[in-house]
Amino acid sequence: MKKSIIAFCLTAVVFISFYSCNKDDEDPDADKALYDATKSGGYTFYQNGNLLTGASPSPHGSFKLRFNSTALAALDSTGELSAGKNFPTGSIIVKDVYSGSNISLYAVMQKDPSNKNSGSGWVWAEYKTDGSVAFSAGKKGDGCTGCHSGTPNRDFTRTFDLH
Predict the structure, then answer these.
(1) Most exposed residue of 11, 13, 57, 142, measured as fewest CB within 10 angstroms of its CB?
(2) Is 12:66 a contact under the CB 8 Å cutoff?
(3) How far apart are CA 90 and CA 140, in angstroms?
């Protein structure tokens, strides 16, 4: 009986620890605010809104890319961010990911180095079209920054070198 109680207590501690760690990676308020920002107007599409094919090893698939006015102002005369340049704070870049002819996911980057959810100066998140979270801003770009830190350095954006 004593061993059963100890085993139960240990199992409970492990479960609670695991659950707490997973909850630390979520930030519902930040996710809602960033999702709402993706739905607001004032975005300009990259390459006239052409559907771009996802380049390997991108997990995103085909997409259209759009910039808020702050991010757009950082682009050069060719419509790209020059190598070695950075987007200003307040920039938002939204990747509308398509499955067939329908948007299936929004992958979002918001330049906000002082944000508690920032990873490498950006807040990273992904949302399903109904607004539910696919990748929380609370994860601080874990799983994103490795691929987005490629060469040449274009402030963690890859599209300009792949398309």
Answers:
(1) 57
(2) no
(3) 17
Domain ranges of the chain: 26-162
Structure-block tokens of residue 116: 């508690």
HEC string for 72-88: HCCCCCCCCCCCCCCCC
Is 26-162 a CATH 2.70.98 domain? no
Phi, psi of 106 (to 5 degrees): -115, 120
Q: pLDDT tens, 132-158?
A: 999 999 999 898 888 888 778 899 998
pTM of the model: 0.82
| Cα–Cα distances in angstroms (integers) from residue 138 to residues 9, 21, 47, 56, 118, in the given order | 30, 12, 31, 26, 8
Pairwise CA distance, residues 95 & 115, whole Å? 21
